User: Fold these one by one.
Assistant:
Number 1:
Amino acid sequence: MFEVFKTSNKPLTMAVYKDITKNNQAYGLEEADAALLPFAVDDAILNAINQETFEAPLAIHFWPTRPTVILGGMDTRLPNFNQAVTWLYKNQDILPVVRPAGGLAVVSDPNVLNVTLLIDTKNQALTIDQAYEFIVALLQEMMDAHGVSLEVGEVATSYCPGKFDVSIRGQKVAGIAQRRIGHAVGIYLYMSISGDQESRGQLVADMYHEGQANQDEKGRYPQVDPSVMANLSDFSSIDSVEQFVNQLLAVIAHAGVNLNERKQSELDTATYIERMQKRNQVLYDILANQ
């Protein structure tokens, strides 16, 4: 399924970046750059692919984080965004992050696996829907070994609802977003592996309550029902981030892709950290005044 992305006669190679953490301590304001780093890594790779300075046509980045709420740009337009951010930080000890990719708020912690699949589409263009369908097909191939059938379609009362929500037996376990820079496409997946998913849903529901989302005239924010979401471990024997990572990489390798593990420290992320700092300055200004 990856052969269409070959850019030369050389064997198809995928750069693999693993940023796995077990740290369940939330970020403090003084640690903001650590929370921004995964997004800078993805943008460094996307830009390198687009500028044709990246050595491989494919990359994958695994990055569970310490506890945080990853906000979409739309969340910054909450009627009372200041109160929502302040409540997260002061009452829940959560420093949120505003991401560059689309969508709305999601919860991230060491038991939620964030995956970014980065693709050079110069030789094989992908529509937005085709990119989503590609990663869903990859996930389904992995889950076939577990006898699990994935369902795709919006779960309106989940957090970050979207057309390509991934569910099992009616409960959402994953969501997908995209970011594109020229012919470089980043497909972002969050997969709830284990942990208290109901509490994650309640956290987002309460954040929207604090931000007075119900007063938004355009109705852009979901009325989150924590019961509509679940963990992958509820339906399969996959109960750790490491298991998921290993099994997904095995499927990719079986498809004929050479896996080349790399260190994210080798990437030049400084420019992209600065851009993320500017994107998140609105948060820091709010919290600095508390």
Number 2:
Amino acid sequence: MSEPAFQRARSAEAKQAREAAILDAARTLGRVRGVRDVTLTDIAAAVGMHKSALLRYFETREQIFLALTAEGWREWSAELRADLGRRAGATPAEVAAVFAGTLAARPMFCDLLAQAPLNLERNVSTESVRSFKLVTLKEVELIVGELGRLLGLDEQQGVDTIATATSLAGALWQMATPGPRLRELYAGDPRFAHAVVEVEPRLNRVLGAYLTGLKVSSAAAT
């Protein structure tokens, strides 16, 4: 495919525009197909570039999706903290509901949360992983502050809560999107009904029980 509209960027602004277009294309494809089924060639074609030209801006497809995962962390954290920040107090069940609702509303972010440790962090440079981890650490720190304010959780408890929520959201999303053939199998045999997962209700129940347990343990220790 020729790429007359995508000559090599000659300025910082042009380079940023190219990168934004690539990220937009990957975001759109990931939402439609699922992250693991999107190739670098797919992204390049969606932007109107040859794959070799795209590699001037991102080292691998994994780097593209890792950048989108960092973006997802910022956006999810901002919405979560905005909701929690409006509350003078909250029960474990209420906090769990906010976590579950804001995560379930971001299916691609849930997909990325599962893919990041499995493969996105494994085929990029150390510097790319470092940059990604710094983003997540900053957002985790901010969320931990809200968990401490509302539920009295200490730093480790807050970190564990976020890790539990995000890892479970990623796993549940994968279970909730098994693909057409498996979905047909599960729907056609009542013995497999347990395999059909709804992300938000399951995540809400598990996090609610987890946070309630932390609250009880903390109260018993004082």
Number 3:
Amino acid sequence: MTRHARNCTAGAVYTYHEKKKDAEASGYGTQNQRVGKDSVKNFDCCCLTLQPCRDPVVTSEGYLFDKEAILEYIVRKKNEISRKTKEYEKQKKKEESELAELAAAEKASKLNSFVKSENNIVSSPRDVFKKENGNDGPSVSNMAGGKAKHLPSFWIPSKTPEARKTKVEKPDKNVLCPMTGKPLKLKDLIDVKFTEVKDPDDKKSHLVKENRYMCAVTHDVLSNAVPCAVLRPTGDVVTMECVEKLIKKDWIHPLTNEKLTEKDIIPLQRGGTGYSKTNENLEGKHERPVLQA
């Protein structure tokens, strides 16, 4: 009887942990690893630059962007769409001209074949098996009549097949959001107003501080572990606890006394932590070749 130990190899069952250990050592199989806290962006960082926003704006889905970064993204995408549209129109005109040339060539070939058939009509029958000019009649070879020049040949560069050009698809004229893939318009971006934490004893720089912002109503410190939302009319950031306990009672803005609706509350998409699940993208995958038995 063998001793039960951590490295016991006498078991009849190939356990999950042994399989995982062998997969890591062999270099086969997909590796999954939970994302740590250092790999997730903070709730007040731009989704493009991954840096704290200087002039934050938010989409209707709750994704935060720096205004300068998202404007640059929209301009670059519009230039790309314009370039692709010109390429598509150029390709379309070229295809139309090629079709017109093919139609003209087909019409000319039909005319030539008709003229040739009219010229071949004779009044007296011909003996096709009779020798003419020292030849044994018409040749059945595919190399006769100068056809050898038109046959494909792999050793002549001009006769080798060419790769077809990639066909340009008609581009979508809408600029898509880099996070959701939905159409994004500049007028749909909402300015966000964060309330800074004012601590006279903290002499650190604003970017170095861990607790930079707080709820505009309850003054609770905001972080990735605290769900928060943006109020559309003013752009103030409040906690979801404030929304559930205060705002949803009377549906009145606590700072301006304006009437609010469900669409005026935009949950802010935040990064997760390595210890609690706050969003769906907290696991990294590295796909590698699979060793099949």
Number 4:
Amino acid sequence: MNEKTKAYLAALSFSAIIGFSFLFTKIALGYASPLTNLAHRYTIAALVLVVLHQTKLIKVSLSRKDILSILPMSLFYPLLFFIFQSFALQYISSSEAGILQALVPIFTLLLASVFLKEKTSLLQKFFLLLSVAGVVFIFLSKGANFSTETASLGFLLMLGSVFSNAINNILSKYKGGQYKVMDLTVVVILVGFIVFNCLSLFSYIASSNLMGYFEPLGHVGYIFSILYLGILASIVTGSLSIYAIVRLGASTVSVFGNLGTVLTILAGALILHEPIYSYHVIGATLIIAGILGMNLRKKK
């Protein structure tokens, strides 16, 4: 199996994990706030990385200079990405956020063309827009509405999250050529662990309810969800996405993120028995067609 085939498999794999992560996030949010969810998620991820390192299953060798060089990646993802997203969801619905999140490939393509000099054909750009249109169609059909008074603030905050994700894609390509995938993943995870735990603990201390931080950990459903989010949706997806971006390019891989929308719909139908409507099928068809066209059509 050549490197390009492995990279496509990596892109498909992280899209599948992200698609199902929305299901587990929805379950976890039934027990804890978004900030506490992130704190526990990155605590699990950090603990697993420590165990893997101590048992010699992974080898990480980073100098202080290396860590400082990688830190900008962690600033944009997970920190700004999740912070902007969490505040945005206080003002707009998840459907509205989903529409804006679909813009990540467009932002990534624009940034990649400027900073990474990545080139895409006109036809590839069309297929990328087709995939984005599929996501937008699904969420508009679900009733997304930006006409509320607070929508403008939520819109701007969510754009901050989208832009942070796109910048992270660019930095993943750039830094991926300088460092090993696992080295990048470790720094990003540890920064998320430190910052999200500090913010979460501070909020509980401020409300004189420190035990509230530990309360969700008494629920099996929450523990299972956090394990999925911490191990698969943080460590594994982080490594797979960087691996794919380095070998396929930021603009090409970013469009795979829209496949997560299709898998989220399937997960909801299979596990939560949520209904699938005609607009789901139409939107999913556009998304898949866009991804296939973007990747099967070679640049001239």
